[in-house]
Amino acid sequence: MSVTRRYHAPVWDEPVVLELGAPGRRGFVPPAPWSDDADDAPLLPESLLRTAPPELPELAEYEARRHYLHLAQETLGMMGISLFGTCTMKHNPSVNEAVVARPEVAAVHPRQDPSTYQGLLGIVHALGEGLKNLSGMDAFSFQPGGGADAAFLHVCVTRAYHASRGELAQRRQIVTTAQAHPCNPATAAAAGFEVVTLPVEEDGYPSLEALKAAIGPQTAALMVNNPDDMGIYNPHVKEWVEAVHEVGGLCFYDHANFNGVMTRVQAAALGFDACMFMLHKTFGVPKGGGGPAVGAYGCSAELARFLPGPVIAEVDGAFVLEEPEQGVGRVREYLGNVHQLVKAYSWLRAMGTDGLREAADLSVLANNYMEQRILRVPGVTRSLPGLGDPRLEMTRFSMAEITAETGVTAVDVQNRMSDFGIDAMWLSHEPWIVPEPFTPEAGEMWSKEDIDTWIDVLAHVLDEARTDPELVRTAPHRQVVAKIDPSGLDDPDRWATTWRAYVRKHGTRAARGGVTA
Amino acid sequence: MNQVHPYMANSAAGSRAAMMSALGIDDVESLFDQIPADHRAGVTTDVPGIVSEAALRRELDRRLRGTVSTQTHLSFLGGGYWNHYVPSLCDEVAARPEIATSVWGTPSSDHGRNQIWFEFSSQLGALLDTEFVGLPVYSWGCATGHALRMAARLTDRDVVLVPDTVDPERRRVIDTYCGSPDLPGSITVREIPVDPATGTLDLEALRGLVDDRVAAVYVETPNAWGVVEHEVQAAVELAHSVGAEAVVSVDPTSLGVLRPPGSFGADIVVGSIQPLGIPLNAGGGVGGFIATRDDERYARQFPTLQVSAAPTTRPGELAFGMTLFEQSSYGSRELAKDWTGNSVYLWAVRAAVYMTLLGPQGFADLGTTLVRNVRAAAALIAEVPGVTVRHADRAFKELVVDFTATSLTVAEIDAALLARGILGGHDLTGSHAALDGCALYCITEIHTEDDVRELVDALKEICA
Question: Buried (b) or exposed (e) across A386-395, using 16+ Cβ within 10 A?
């Protein structure tokens, strides 16, 4: 793929499904009742019955299929090049999808007796062993349905741990950093803790002195990522952990950016009490546009008794489900996203230790290769440009000079790059500590040619920003739809999360002369 | 590593060498200088990779061989997790790599997926009779937990009333979300007793429980015993009488037949999307929804992400973008309304396809089949000597089957059924004082009369 490749997104001008179909059509007919006493008295009181049918579409099966296939085609996803930083875009092997579609995974009911699905439990158990091997942790829970849910589990474990020692009422604070993912402070606050956020200092991370000044007998836990989303590794993190332990707090390692340090760093060896891996990022599980995901939560033997049930244990060669004695209950029902655990296990087996090492090497190599090329693009700077060390698996850049010069923003550039089949790059989580940020992450999957193309497109678009800024500001021009007008998205008189609300506020599209079915 | 790996393009020597040459390095190790020597720790055990897909597939298939499932066995398991038919189109659309591998995108380039999300919310809203619907959350229990927290914020109160029938698995999630009394912002959960005679809420008891500390009254219909709450509107009105929010949980498969919650005053509606075309996945098929009327007061408390239709710069064209993003944890960190993150958005795609396929008549037919099948099954199961079926006259698709008059425990009966190729209902013993010796049997549209007769014959043998 090169800048000069002719690309245009598929355009079907596809109506909203509620604009399609005709009265009486059917897409699926449920089985008739086998006891069809239609003449009998109603089986439910009249007052409980629905009086008007739901306003759902009425489509024949082929129309439904065509509609959704059009919408699939109108989704770029990873069909071009996607270097979406902080999310570690990976190859999602087809074999894994084929395996989990089998009834041995898809049709297992979570309330079946564990003796009936030992193979599946064995896979989950083996995945846990694999993650223990990578982290040095003693136990894993797969119940959390994403990274944020694993952070929530950690704050629940933190509550239970301090409550068990009679100290919860005193330990009210959770300490994190400005570069930690927003889910860390958000889950801490939701669980009832006060949040202390340490600002980033000149070395790219908060100083040890700042941490020491912020902790004390009121500290419940520390929640940090490392390296952060700028690719900067905090070399003092061991001292951080020791300092927090000294005042009686727990330490949680958000391993969102594990890809660059796989097989080189173990959370337990650094002293952490708990960690989290995102299997939908680092371990090859597809992202699904936002889940089903897994935040695999690992912890020390001391904290294992607080894990939510059910946890899988091996007893006399059989896998059983156990309820930890002081467990936090549940953060979500059942075992977790088991089909995604099978995919992660498969990915880990396919890679092996050597493959993981290679993936870490390649992702850091590719990032540094990309960085030296991107920094040659006029108007692009690196976050904290004075720091000398090579960044790890990603680098955060800024195009603030371009914006100052041309008015073209990072969002405009995202939109224009999509005209070349490039999926949006990540900008930055809140807070933005560099202006007009962008954060590509190469990972180990993408070829050198793809990375070169991506950079070529970026350079081309930034050149356009100078020569024809209007072209970039009004982008995209070759996408499914034109640039969204976001001005009404937060306006209660205009927002519409459902078609019925849309029609009530704006009328039908046909009435406005728009597209009709 | 000498092995070129299919998952890593640059594991081929040339690409790797070209990048190293551009950087002027002859060893990638120099790129890791940031990590201090005393932080370095390799894996404990080296594990070889299975690079060939053929060998990997055999390893996975070997491990899974012999697994019992709801397809190898006749299953009556339910309990908030139901064995409905999954139309093939749900599988086909959700498997499309454009959608399955998408991550975030822009409203223009991932337009198709965003439109499907909007269609999920639109169709679910039509079933529920609510106009504001968020993207799904992790599970039904998580949806309830968030809804109760929304109610607490809306009312500035700290007590919620929850039926004592709520499934223990879900109840534990609710308790986790309601926090610890040792920390600020926690919510006290009090139980509304059920009338064991009817299996429905004891309204007199509820009347005695509501007061001006109550943020929410939570009602499930059908409830965890499979019983349709006949007096759900009265419960909603009792909540409103003290200024509390009515949080109502419904089963979407019932809403072609049963009154939608938006029509009887429910303020926050929650439930599971699992029955809408999502496979069981050994527990990985869960997903929850949160919906309200389109009222700013409620909308501004949503913890979820949600898509809104919006115009584009091209006249007449619609796009779909995030609304109220700023109040999410992405926008506001610790000041957010709870938190969000990766959820189960691919399940929203399945559910959207499912609702389109069924349409209004499909939901009406489905609901009718479920009610008629469960009532007929109740009559057949009651023929087994010593076995009684409770509350069958109010059942929707699940039955409490009482085995206490047999000399057997539910565990013994389920083991005997399993030996006959049947997954019996799950054991309710210990879940409620009234349920020792009882099991919950789920009958859906996929069951035939022969299936239930096979169960009944087996039970007659076992209980004889």
Answer: ebebbbbbbb
List the structure tokens of A266.
């173990």
- Out of A120, A122, A330, the one facing B173 most closely (by C-beta) is A330
Tell me the CATH number at B135: 3.40.640.10
Query: Is residue B226 located within the same domain as residue B268?
Result: yes
Same domain flag for B365 and B349? no
Given an 8 Å threshold on Cβ–Cβ distance, is B98 in contact with A365?
no
Out of B336, B354, B372, a domain closes at B354
Q: Which of A84, A414, A293, A14 shows the shortest CA–CA distance to B118?
A: A14
Angle between helices B345-381 and A61-73 (to 10 degrees): 150
CATH number for B376: 3.90.1150.10
CA dist A296 and B229 (Å) reads 38
**Beta-carbon contacts below 8 Å between A and B:** 754
A273: closest CA of chain B, how far (Å): 16
Could you list the pLDDT tens digit for every one of the 464 residues in chain B?
568 999 999 999 999 999 999 999 999 999 999 999 999 998 889 999 999 999 999 999 999 999 999 999 999 999 999 999 999 999 999 999 999 999 999 999 999 999 999 999 999 999 999 999 999 999 999 999 999 999 999 999 999 999 999 999 999 999 999 999 999 999 999 999 999 999 999 999 999 999 999 999 999 999 999 999 999 999 999 999 999 999 999 999 999 999 999 999 999 999 999 999 999 999 999 999 999 999 999 999 999 999 999 999 999 999 999 999 999 999 999 999 999 999 999 999 999 999 999 999 999 999 999 999 999 999 999 999 999 999 999 999 999 999 999 999 999 999 999 999 999 999 999 999 999 999 999 999 999 999 999 999 999 999 98
B79 and B99 together in one domain = no
A402 token code pair: 């371009």
End-to-end CA distance of chain B: 65
Sign, CA dihedral A50-A52-A54-A57, equals positive
B114 and B182 both lie in a single domain: yes
Give chain B's domain count. Answer: 2
- B312 with A72: Cβ contact below 8 A: no
Give every CB contact of residue A217 below 8 A, 6+ residues apart in sequence: A170, A171, A247, A248
Q: Retrieve residue A489's tokens.
A: 């998205």
- Exposed e or buried b per residue across A81-102, where buried means at least 16 C-beta atoms within 10 angstroms of its C-beta: bbbbbbbbbbbbbebbbebbeb
Q: Which residues have a Cβ under 8 Å from the Cβ of A502 and sit 6 or more positions away?
A: A496, B309
End-to-end CA distance of chain A: 35
Which chain B residue's Cα is nearest to A474?
B313
- Please check whether residues B327 and B390 belong to one and the same domain: no
CA–CA min distance B210, chain A (Å): 24
- CA A507 from chain centre, in angstroms, equals 36
Tell me, yes or no, whether B18 lies in a domain.
Answer: no
Q: Cβ of B340 and A148 within 8 Å?
A: yes
Q: State how far the Cα of A452 lies from the Cα of A460, in Å rounded to an integer.
A: 12
Same domain, B268 and B328: yes
> What are the domain boundaries of chain A?
97-349, 488-517
Judged by a CB distance cut-off of 8 A, whether residue B250 touches chain A is: no
In terms of domains, do B419 and B346 share one?
A: no
Contact A269 B41 (CB under 8 A): yes
Asked whether residue B291 falls in the same domain as residue B391, the answer is: no
In a domain, B98, yes or no: yes
Residues pairing with A275 in the sheet:
A253, A298
**Chain-centre distance of CA A29, in angstroms?**
36
- Domain finish residue from B322, B337, B354: B354
- Please answer yes or no on whether B103 and A289 come within 8 Å at the CB atom: yes
Could you tell me if residue B42 is inside a domain?
Answer: no
Residue B8 falls inside a structural domain: no
Looking at domain A97-349, does it have CATH number 3.40.640.10?
yes
Domain residue limits at B318: 88-354
